[in-house]
Each structure stands twice: as structure tokens, then as C-alpha cells.
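pipeline stage [seq->struct] | target=Phosphatase PAP2 family protein | organism=Micromonospora aurantiaca | residues=200
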Amino acid sequence: MRGSRERRAGARAARLLTEALAPTVLVTALPLIAAARVSRSAGQFLLWGGIALTFCAVIPIGVLVHGVRRGRLTDRHVGDRTQRARPLSIGLASVAAGLLLLAAVRAPAELFAVIVVVFVVGAACALVNHWWKLSIHAAVAAATVAVLVPLAGPAASLGWVLVAAVGWSRVRLGDHTWPQVLAGVALGGPLAAGTFLALA
């Protein structure tokens, strides 16, 4: 009985981590954090943050929700690798459009770099997932921390604990294996850090 309760508690904790630190949550939060850091007025934040939020989060998440409701996707995390190509492609097109708008309104380099990171990591995940089910949760979590450290300071390094927790949750729920999680971290972290530091 005790073992059963512990397994249920572990599954609940894993589900909470998977939902709270899902890619959709992180790609919503990171551009807004960047926009808040570079904006000198509420108007700038509303303009730059609004563009980033709309094209990096609202449209891509809307595609996922629509796909689930229409039965084209099994779930909003797109656990079936064969279903990932379409939402990832539409999401990347949306982020690319956002980049063009941010360039047009002359958004600061740091914010622009963050959105390029979202695009580059997303494109890399889409490419790998064409052949293998890499963990996008792990890739995006690692990319987020890799960007936050130079953007917000060394204290953001504590986020790596959450990256490990996300990885554990994906394996605990049976959605990924450890190699898939570690591959996500190995792809997302260095790629995000290199891209951001090259552009910011």
C-alpha cells in the first residue's frame, strides 16, 4: 500500500513539473523577461513584449490547442513523434514572422537574440524529431537556463536544478528515455548559449 501511494505521489509530482515547465510555458516567459529587461517604458514593453508573446507563444500554442481539439494531435505535448512536424513548422514560421516585426520596430539586440534562440532551438528540435523522439521539454528547459544566465546573472544557474527535474519528470511519466532527455539538454543548452552570446 505504501509503495502504491509513493508511486502515485511520484507520478503527480512528475506531471506537475511537466506542465509547469512545459515548452509552451517557457517560451511564453522568456521573451517577456527579456522584453522587461530592455524596455525603458511601458509602451516599449507592450510593443516589444506583445510582438514576442504573440508570435513565440500565442500563435504556436493556439496551433497545438486547435490540433488537439480537431483530433489531429493526441495531446498538447505532442507525444507522438510522427505528429510533431506540422505544429513545429507552423510555430517556426510564426517565430520567424515575429523576428521580422521586431527588426522592423528596432527591438534591442538582447530581445532579438532571445527570439532567434527560440527559432534556432525549435528548428534543431524539429530536425532531430524527424528521425528520433528527442525531448523538447529538456531542450527548451536547458535553452532557457542557458539564456537566463548571461541575461539575468549567475543566480539563474540554479535553474539547472529545474532542468534536471524536468528530465526526471519526462522519464518518470514514460514519455521519454534518459538518452532522449540528455540529448535534449545537450542540444538546447549549448546551442542557445552560443546563439545568444553571438547576437546579444
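stage status: PASS
auto-comment: The radius of gyration is 17 Å. The helical segments are 2-20, 23-38, 42-69, 85-104, 109-129, 136-152, 159-172, 178-199.
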